Amino acid sequence: MALEPDQTSVDSITLFVALLCSCIVIGHLLEKNRWFNESITALAIGLCSGIIILLTTEGKRSHILVFNEELFFIYLLPPIIFNAGFQVKKKQFFRNFAMIILFGAVGTLISFVIVSIGTMQLFKKLDIGFLDIGDYLALGAIFSATDSVCTLQVLNQDETPLLYSIVFGEGVVNDATSIVLFNAIQKFDLSHITSRIFIEFIGNFLYFFITSTLLGVGVGLISAYIIKKLYIGRHSTDREVALMILMAYLSYMMAELFNLSSILTVFFCGIVMSHYTWHNVTESSRITTKHAFATLSFISEIFIFLYVGMDALDIEKWKVVSKSPGTSAGVSSILLGLVLVGRAASVFPLSFISNLFKRSESDKFTLKQQVTIWWAGLMRGSVSVALAYNQFTRSGHTQLRGNSIMITSTITVVLFSTVVFGLMTKPLIRLLLPSKHLCGGVSSGSFDSFPSKLMTDLPLIANGDAEVGGNNIPRPTSLRMLLATPTRTVHYYWRKFDDSVMRPMFGGRGFVPHVPGSPTEPLLH
Amino acid sequence: MALEPDQTSVDSITLFVALLCSCIVIGHLLEKNRWFNESITALAIGLCSGIIILLTTEGKRSHILVFNEELFFIYLLPPIIFNAGFQVKKKQFFRNFAMIILFGAVGTLISFVIVSIGTMQLFKKLDIGFLDIGDYLALGAIFSATDSVCTLQVLNQDETPLLYSIVFGEGVVNDATSIVLFNAIQKFDLSHITSRIFIEFIGNFLYFFITSTLLGVGVGLISAYIIKKLYIGRHSTDREVALMILMAYLSYMMAELFNLSSILTVFFCGIVMSHYTWHNVTESSRITTKHAFATLSFISEIFIFLYVGMDALDIEKWKVVSKSPGTSAGVSSILLGLVLVGRAASVFPLSFISNLFKRSESDKFTLKQQVTIWWAGLMRGSVSVALAYNQFTRSGHTQLRGNSIMITSTITVVLFSTVVFGLMTKPLIRLLLPSKHLCGGVSSGSFDSFPSKLMTDLPLIANGDAEVGGNNIPRPTSLRMLLATPTRTVHYYWRKFDDSVMRPMFGGRGFVPHVPGSPTEPLLH
């Protein structure tokens, strides 16, 4: 057919889409099995097809698409992060905001320092190519980005809401922190660190954090305002959905354009959109956006895992490494060890500190809960792979010895942690947090229990809101009160501000006249 | 920010997404205006931003993305065509199947012959560069691809169901026919046409048509079977939606891979999916897929029109043309004239023929209806532009004199027909088919009145089905009956087969146990 310019790209896309379909079907079939999940399935299928491609091309190549950072950061990551913000239980998230920031930002910094210093000290003994200080710091950032999808699939949001929101929120903040750190490292000249450069680095980091958040909130509010003012819902569900998708993506691309942290921007854009914009649209738009965003995120996730599995067998990189398998195995083991230690060094002390601030015994983290949080952050995933490719390859190929060892070690760590640690997650959590409803099964273990929970819990949240805004919590009237329960007080004043200023302007639950406008309603009633 | 490899692509994507958002908002604001529609708005915004970019880059370039056929045929076209199949009123479509094929396939062939011969004769008198026979035939195919979006926006599906289904169905079949013709032309050596080559050509054409249809139907049925057998719905809405999207896309890519007509394949895949698969999923999946597919199609359409508007000012092409503005204007006028004549030569005779076969006077096409059908196919759109780029550019640039005249003329014809003919459509149809509810307004003129109509009409279709399958039509018991009302008889036996074999196997309305599984239901009840 003469129309397509490139037959190989058609081949690759067809094969890749077919593999994605098979991942979904096989993942579904294996769902009842308590050891497996979609990520591991996709990795396994990726590995298998890598082997098959390797055999059919007689060892020339194992992947069908060259790893493309642009693809990853411009197309695959935004839906995942946006959906995370869009589906997060906002009340839980903001209630535990301080703790999430503590674990997500401070914890990541601790892990970053430990991995950086650890590699600097331990790699000296191994015969690997030249790595400069920037490379070591980049390794710290790369191996501080956790992938908590596995754990979230087995944690029950209703039974352990605090644990769930901490693991979830930390995962997002942690990804953002790692990427911001990584960017800062690549930007700054780190060959001679002075205190001035260090302060500049911290300032830059905070500037990134705050402006990115503000941009995301801003774009989210604009979308809410436009949809509320124009009453687009009265006319067209498709137009509303299109506008929400495009505005969300716009926030991400604007952050990229202004050199901000696009991951944070789109996350907060998602939160604002689900708090305001989502309530301004028709009911069919609500259902559509909720599931369409979750689906896009789901496809992106499988895509990434499938890709990582396929790329793991890239022959070019292993050729360089195979001359010294011992070195490579050593590097991988050191990295895995540092990941375990770094995570422990952040979770247990930080839990201890946060326990000090809690007066009620039941609010404190038990050792078992601490172990769960520690375990939840041991897996390394696609963000690590993408960052490693960025740091250690220049044109997608890896000829330098040191660089290819780093790439293969990253892949080894990601595969090992996802598969081995991932497979152990369900049994471990079952052991640590025994519960009737916890493991596997239809209601709690399914991949999208997450968004569906959000929906079934809507009345619950509504009750909760009334509770917070109205009766159960004593009104904070003094400064003493603010000091005693800072988060709750901030939350109280935020709700007052939200009700009196924000919602009347941007819409939100109960502040927008009911818009039926949806021809699907008769179908459902 | 070090992460993105290419700052210009971030610039372009951001600007493009921002423009898409503004198209939606401005299109919404102009909706009450009876002259405008989203296509014209997108074209106008594209032209304006083209001018601004031209001024800011000091005349160097006018577009932010180079026209990319791969982008068009691999990413933008599939959602539009799939959605067309998914949302089509199947009963109307199949009832008028013979007439749709008559107008869509035979009509396109007539128009193709007239444009090809016309250009061959008339271009000789103009001083344009060398064009060979393949170029003339390609022009015939390029200018036979109509764009009936404008007309569909103002036709009322409920008041003129026959007219609507003919214009709509013809639009799809016509696009497919043009693309199949175009491919056949590029593939065959046309410098010496013998009768053997001609027969081969016809055979190839039929082979394309039938295998493409079968592939689409096959993939659609597989998706229905998988979802029905695995009861995926019980577990996950996202997984179902993801599977439907991926399988639909897979059918398109497989057709590309096997050198078939991907446009036909994905269209029939859409029809089968809406007939079987759609009934096997949960209610929230139904709402989500319906609106998500419509939204994707909507975004792709605006994207294309915005792009065509922006590309219209590409300075490189106009530089070559500006040396002989008279020639270029002549070519454009000839092409426009041939489009008008070719369309007339296919619509009026074919209407006459189809009227001969109708016994009831009320079923026959009146002159006013014939003029409406004629007018509906005068607009030329993105398919023409994409085909013209394919034929007359090799690397996206146009240095050859003849080629650049053809490209600029194509753009002129597309702009002129979309804007001038498009603006005249609403008043003209109001004049030809006077009706209380017809023009503009909230209910009928909106861009997605189309899918929403589908939903409100569901009970109607159900009644209609009962009517066809059961009581009103006498059971055809003899061959005489079959000859008298062939379409209805075929439809009757198809329904029997569907009810006894297909639906029990692949699911469908009433053949799948009710799957609540949707946590959104409580929200809606």
UniProtKB/TrEMBL annotation, chains A, B:
Which cellular component terms (GO) are annotated to the entry?
plasma membrane
Entry annotated with the keyword Membrane: yes
InterPro entries reported in the protein's UniProt record: Cation/H_exchanger_CPA1, Cation/H_exchanger_TM, NaH_exchanger
Q: Which GO terms describe its biological process?
A: regulation of intracellular pH; sodium ion import across plasma membrane
Q: Which keywords accompany this UniProt record?
A: Ion transport, Membrane, Potassium, Potassium transport, Sodium, Sodium transport, Transmembrane, Transmembrane helix, Transport
The protein's organism comes out as: Gossypium barbadense
Where do the TM regions start and end? 12-30, 42-59, 71-88, 100-124, 205-227, 261-279, 291-310, 330-352, 404-424
Q: Does the keyword Ion transport apply?
A: yes
Catalysed reaction, written as an equation: Na(+)(in) + H(+)(out) = Na(+)(out) + H(+)(in); K(+)(in) + H(+)(out) = K(+)(out) + H(+)(in)
Q: Where in the cell is it found?
A: Membrane
GO MF entries? potassium:proton antiporter activity; sodium:proton antiporter activity
| A Pfam family | Na_H_Exchanger
User: Could you identify this protein by its name?
Assistant: Cation/H+ exchanger transmembrane domain-containing protein
